[in-house]
Amino acid sequence: MGGFGFTEAQEMLRQEVRRFAQKELAPGALERCKMGPMELYEALPEIDKKIVDMGWTALNVPARYGGQQVDAVSLGIIFEESAKVDPYVETVGAMQATSTLLETLPEEVQDEWFPPLIKRERRHAFGFTEAAAGSDAASIVTKAVRDGDNYIISGEKFPIPFAMVADVASISVKTDPTAGFKGVSMFWVPMNLPGITRSHLPWMGNPNLVPSIAVFDEVRVPAKYREGEEGKGFYMILSTLDWLRVITAFTCLCRAQASLEEAIAWSQERIAFGQPISRYQGVSFLIAEHYTRVEAARLLCYRVLWLKDQGLPYMAECSMAKWYGVEVSIQAIKDCMVIIGHPAYSTEHPISQRLRDVVGFQMGDGTPQMQKLIISRMLLGK
Ligand SMILES: Cc1cc2nc3c(=O)[nH]c(=O)nc-3n(C[C@H](O)[C@H](O)[C@H](O)COP(=O)(O)OP(=O)(O)OC[C@H]3O[C@@H](n4cnc5c(N)ncnc54)[C@H](O)[C@@H]3O)c2cc1C
Fold first, then answer.
1. Which superfamily does 234-379 belong to?
2. Does the CB atom of residue 369 touch ligand 1 within 6 A?
């Protein structure tokens, strides 16, 4: 952004992504919205290939793998315009998080993994949550014990989206159980190593995340797969989550926007008591209020990305965007359901699926309470 608004180049990019999304993502998007995790997973590679061909999975990866550097606002534009048409296309957002983690590994490991990940021939999962440790991410019990040139990892990640289908997972472990958050390290774990078992988790929404559990039973992982230094894993989780939080807010707001557009169209057609329901202020004001909130939350997301581009701190703003974006989206989609009435309550209707999805995003990447904790700590100077 230059000043208050998008630059000409960013506006041109938006038009380009919009055209791409209408041509390549719109066909079948509504059908994909009704699919279960594995069926959806089978359907997505075709879409991913189109995104790979656009070069969007290579954005901001190191130049030696063909990476092209772009600003964070432009990334947000690509993500938003794609998610507006198909919210299940998470490819662009996910690859940024993967790239940041993979870049902490030795070059030989990067050489092995970057090319297939960019082409979406291999998949990555990110797991820091355990049965007894979610918000309190430093209290994990999964441990990694050094044994010569290897570490032996034992524990369980629950939930860990994508693990069922992932070729590799970045997971948090304790390398020093006595050191609190300074004892947390991250590992890049190829999922075909002996000792790993995975199972599917039945979630009420977000089938594209392929919700899973992964158990690590004395898995021998070469030390070269440690991400960065021992004891620095907690900071890596935080910085990865910062990016994912904005993406999560965008993906929810795109669902809210689509629902509002459907509710507007419906309200102009649906007749009750002799006139379109859009003529009743009880309906039209509701739409106006939600549209305003969604727009405000969207601008909050872009502000975070703009701060990132300026090299300014943005952690608290990330939490604002995440908490507010998800909250506003839930309320908007819920009211759109009421405006459309019982047809939108059908499990076949995209609005009911969107509501199930956004409710989950309250927890994904940190609960509302955790976001408020971060915001209040900044405001109160803690
Ligand atoms: C859609 C979705 C996607 C996800 N994606 C991932 C992923 O990619 N990788 C991954 O590892 N995990 C993922 N998760 C798990 C997610 O990170 C956790 O659900 C989240 O961190 C919260 O942990 P928890 O569910 O164990 O709740 P807990 O941490 O047990 O919290 C329970 C309740 O207590 C509240 N609470 C806890 N501590 C405090 C406090 N100090 N002050 C006030 N309230 C507090 C919480 O806000 C919450 O309401 C995902 C979950 C969902 C639903």
1. Butyryl-CoA Dehydrogenase, subunit A, domain 3 (1.20.140.10)
2. yes
The DSSP secondary structure of 235-279, one letter per residue, reads: HHHHHHHHHHHHHHHHHHHHHHHHHHHHHHHHHHH-EETTEEGGG
CATH number at 8-118 = 1.10.540.10
Does the pLDDT value for residue 205 go beyond 90? yes
Atom of ligand 1 nearest to the CA of 206: 1
Is a pLDDT exceeding 80 seen at residue 4?
Answer: no
Domain positions in the chain: 8-118, 124-231, 234-379
Q: How many residues does the chain have?
A: 382
The reply to whether ligand 1 has any atom less than 6 angstroms from the CB of 376 is: no
241 within ligand 1 shell (Cβ under 6 A): no
88 CA from centroid of ligand 1 (Å): 21
Closest CA to 356 of 87, 26, 25: 87
For ligand 1, the distance from its centroid to the CA atom of residue 286, given in whole angstroms, is: 31
**Predicted TM-score of the model (pTM):** 0.96
The Å distance, Cα 196 to ligand 1 centre, comes to 24
Cβ of residue 87 lying under 6 Å from some atom of ligand 1: no
To test the pocket of ligand 1, the residue of 206, 356, 363 to mutate (highest count of ligand atoms within 8 Å of its CB) is 363
Lowest mean per-residue pLDDT among 31-45, 176-190, 308-322, 323-337 = 31-45
Digit-coded pLDDT (tens) for 310-345 = 999 999 999 999 999 999 999 999 999 999 999 999
Nearest to 331 by CA among 281, 289, 298: 289
DSSP 20: H
